[in-house]
Predict the 3D structure of the following.
Amino acid sequence: MNKERYLFVISGPSGSGKDSVVRELQKKHKEIETTISATTRAMRGGEKDGEDYYFISREEFERRRDAGDVLEYTEYCGNYYGTLRSEIDRRLEKGVTTFLVIDVVGAQSMKRTYPGCTTIFVRPPSYEELSRRLHKRETEDEDTIQKRLARALEEMEYAVDYDYLVVNDELDDCVEEVYQIVCQRQA
Ligand code: 5GP
């Protein structure tokens, strides 16, 4: 049995709502788990260490990376984000459906390491809607929002390389669509 079929990699621009999609999916289907990434960015209000991310220093990140504990990582808007090896292997061994929410660079390297994984790209309905969502969030300053919007346009070009493309217009519909993909891949 190919263990990699339990692995789902989901990406999409900041503001595409990919985190909400995965959160809702997990609420509805308790057997699905998500990995927690390590990051060097500052914690946002409402986030918890060890729940949203493992918030670590740059030095600590580099130490773990050099020790081979980081499976893939990217530098995004001046911060490191990476997947810890320990978050993946133990779940695949047990046959747990595992979701990774990572950027396009990370998704490419995961596909190289685990060619049997499924990649899903979440797209916002439009650029205007993306900009509206990022402004509404009120967690970043205008400069950061502009950087994220610019990066979003770059990221959209990678969508064609994914196994599936879903549009997050209505959250519930998008969650159902992603769940159908999970069922299909594990049938
Ligand atoms: P945010 O700061 O909004 O939480 O995340 C910024 C970006 O980093 C998002 O596109 C998110 O998917 C990506 N990201 C989060 N964790 C990881 C990771 O472990 N690896 C990679 N490659 N990207 C990540």
